[in-house]
Write a structure and sequence with these properties.
Strand content: over 45%
Number of strands: 13
Structural class: mainly beta
Helix content: under 10%
Largest sheet: 13 strands, mixed
Shape: globular
Number of helices: 3
Order of helices and strands: EHEEEEHHEEEEEEEE
Length: 201
């Protein structure tokens, strides 16, 4: 298992209606559409892989899951920030393919086909409560928290056993377009999640 750590934020938008049941059921409940298609973005505020600094880099992800998440047979791909040097790039590929073990090690068990990784201009930006992910022409997304009774507070599902993190902000996608690996998706208005992450190997 490699020595690595990532702290930052993750956003995810899937084809489920709001709100994705996998956060609570941990993948035991089927997605609302019977299958899961999703894109995700990771902003790395602090991080390293085997001594190589990862801070300030971003990653885009593509997930295609045929049924319940816990059953596996996932297809996945990663877009690595084109500002990464070779060591950082290889480290991030190892982390997000599951090969590095640790928090994301479950990918090595659940992903039956890692479709590939490539460098791309991955931009993760925040505008008030909105988060945006841009990965070239492949992924264009924007997510925003669902408003609760108190508009000043995010609607958060807390203390979950979800692998990404215990506290998940319930969100929806203002934009969620994917054109990659033969997939053409549009998840506008569908379920989204915002999560502070603290992962390690």
């Amino acid at each position: 298992m490699a020595d690595w750590k990532i702290k930052g934020e993750l956003i995810l938008n899937c084809n489920c209606t709001v709100f994705c049941p996998c956060v609570i059921s941990l993948g035991a409940h089927p997605p609302t559409e019977g299958h899961c298609q999703a894109w995700a973005g990771v902003r790395i505020d602090e991080g390293h892989f085997e001594g190589e600094d990862l801070s300030g880099l971003n990653v885009g992800l593509l997930l295609d899951i045929p049924g319940k998440m816990e059953r596996g047979d996932w297809k996945a791909a990663a877009y690595i920030d084109d500002r990464s040097n070779d060591k950082a790039y290889e480290g991030l590929v190892d982390i997000f393919s599951g090969n590095a073990g640790g928090t994301t090690g479950l990918f090595s068990m659940l992903v039956s086909e890692f479709m590939g990784a490539e460098r791309a201009p991955v931009e993760f930006t925040t505008d008030g409560k909105k988060r945006r992910l841009s990965v070239g022409r492949m992924i264009q997304g924007e997510v925003e928290p669902v408003q609760g009774k108190d508009p000043e507070k995010d609607l958060v599902v807390s203390n979950t056993g979800y692998w990404m993190g215990a506290d998940i902000t319930v969100a929806t996608a203002n934009k969620g377009r994917v054109r990659a690996f033969g997939r053409v998706w549009n998840f506008e208005g569908r379920s989204a999640e915002i999560c502070q992450i603290d992962w390690s190997g």
